Each structure stands twice: as structure tokens, then as C-alpha cells.
Amino acid sequence: MGHMRTWSDQEQFRTVVARQQGRISWAQLVRLGPSESKIKREIKAGGLVPVLPKVYAVGYAAPSREADLWAAILYAGPGAMLSHATAAQWRGLIQYPPATIEVSTPRKIKSIKGIRVYGKRRLPRQFHRDLPVTSTAQTVLDLAATAEFRLVRKALADLDYTHQLDIPALQAICRRGHLGSKRLREALAIHQPELAYTNGSLEVDFVEWCERHQVPIPKFNTYIHGIQVDAHWPGSNLVVELDGYDNHSSRAQLRRDKRNDLALRERGLTVLRYDGELLRRRAPAIRAEILRCL
């Protein structure tokens, strides 16, 4: 930021840039005092580096996820905020950030590569972890309108886990003509808190498999005799381990699994192991086996 001697209010400039992770818009630059010709000279000198249309990185400001999110918000203009799956991930309601940053704005702004803009949306903004986002209820509604149904259910479970699940607020935002309302009502009707404890898509698959085949929902990722197990039904001696490729593929992991299975069996537990393909292809036999053990 050494080139910025022309700015009329250096302290204000530093405050804005620091808050926005080293990103600033053309409109903000103009409001800080210098003429357009001075701003253009700063761009030519390398003190301002274009990152999006009329959005700049200040000098050496390093790239980061937060900086990219701020750049998208600044591109969408005053009143803009993270929304949809981007807001859900920033709020910790889904695990992985979407490939495209999603923002909402009261203005009419075109989407560009890497940024999906939902324009003409006059919504209340909240700040979460120093970034403007849609409200929790609006975030979940937008997620229901655009994302997989299971992500909506997982978001509800995570809200429940963190004591943030406001069912009346979610029901109130589900209104005729509002995209996502029908799917959000459906998700609320079959809300399953145990989804918050699942780790990975195969465990989410198993929750849905149990619902579909009328098998009681187990507890996930609990400890029994000091060993973490994928699924266990309290009051029973049954453990089900779900073998996904990512965490059951190396020789060391396979040895660990066998060692843990043996330790649990020595303590009188029954350990069953299934992978995703087996759950799909042999569902009736697996259902019968689980119910028999329960």
C-alpha cells in the first residue's frame, strides 16, 4: 500500500482495505477522495491490481478465499451479500464451498465466470465471520431452491446441533411463490438430527438407506471401549462400519480396521461391514441381518 499517498484519508483507506481482505471497488476509491485520473495512474503503477471488473487488489494483498468472496461482493455492488450454497458453507451448514461463488444484490448485475449473481433481491444482511451474508432462514431457503435435497437436510441437522434451528422462522419464510419453499417444508417434515454427526457421503447414504428400509436410525461416530465406530444402536451390541474408498483403502487403514473389529468382538459386540455398492445391491439381505442383530 506504499503507492497510496494520494488518498485524502489514509486511515479510512487502510480500514476499508483491511476489512475487505485487501480488496476495494472503484466506487469506494472515488468516495475516498482522489480523481479518476489519479486512480488510473495508481492502476498503471501497479498499486491497484484489477481482479474483477471495477474491483482491485491493493498492491501486494495476498489471495485467499476471504479475499475472493469480498471481491465477488464488491463486484455485485452496495447491499450485496453471500447467498445460497456460498452463504451456507460460510455459515458452516455445508462442508465444501461451491465452485461458483454465489451472491445476492438489490441491483441488476450480470453473472460472470466464477460468480453467480442473483439480482434485484432486497434482503436483510447479516455479518457472519466479518462477511455480509443472507439471514440463516433465507440461506436455508435459497439452498433448498438450488442444492441437493440431502444438503438441505444436513444443514437443518447442523443448525439443530449448534442450537440455531429456528423452525418457526423457517416455516414463516416458506411462502407461495418463493423458490425452495416446498422442498424446505419437505425437509422440515422429515428432519433427522443424527445427520449432524455423519462424516462423509456414505454415512449420509446410510441414514437415507435406514429411512427407506425402515431400519432404526443409529448413532454415528460414537466411541465404544475407546474405539470410534461409524454406526451403533444404543442398547444393542451391534456396530456397523461403512467402508468408503477414501478412508478404508490403504494397507495401514485395513490393518487398523481389522484390529478394531477384533477388539470390539472380544468385548461381545457384533461388527458388520458394508460398502455403498453392497447396500445398494443386497438391501433386503442387509436389512434382515441388521434387524436380526438388533
The gist of it:
This protein has 294 residues and is α+β, with helices and mostly antiparallel strands. Helices cover 44% and strands 18% of the residues.
Characterise the protein shown here.
- The protein is of the alpha+beta class.
- It folds into 3 domains: 60 residues, Orthogonal Bundle (Arc Repressor Mutant, subunit A); 109 residues, no CATH class; 96 residues, Endonuclease, Chain A (3-Layer(aba) Sandwich).
- Helix 7 packs across helix 9.
**Strand segment tally:** 12
User: Taking Cα atoms only, what radius of gyration do you get, to the nearest Å?
Assistant: 25 Å
Kindly report the spatial arrangement of strands forming the biggest sheet. 9-10-11-12
- The residue fraction in helices comes out at 40-55%
Tag the structure with descriptive keywords.
single chain, 294 residues, alpha+beta, Endonuclease, Chain A, 3 domains, 3-stranded antiparallel β-sheet, 13 helices, 44% helix
How is this fold's topology laid out?
Elements (H helix, E strand, L loop, with lengths): L9 H10 L3 E3 H6 L4 H10 L2 E5 L2 E4 L6 H12 L4 E2 L1 H7 L10 E4 L10 E4 L6 E4 L2 E4 L1 H11 L2 H13 L5 H7 L7 H9 L11 H12 L6 E6 L2 E6 L5 E5 L8 H16 L3 E5 L1 H6 L1 H11 L1
Parallel strand pairs: 5-6, 11-12
Antiparallel strand pairs: 1-3, 2-3, 4-5, 7-8, 9-10, 10-11
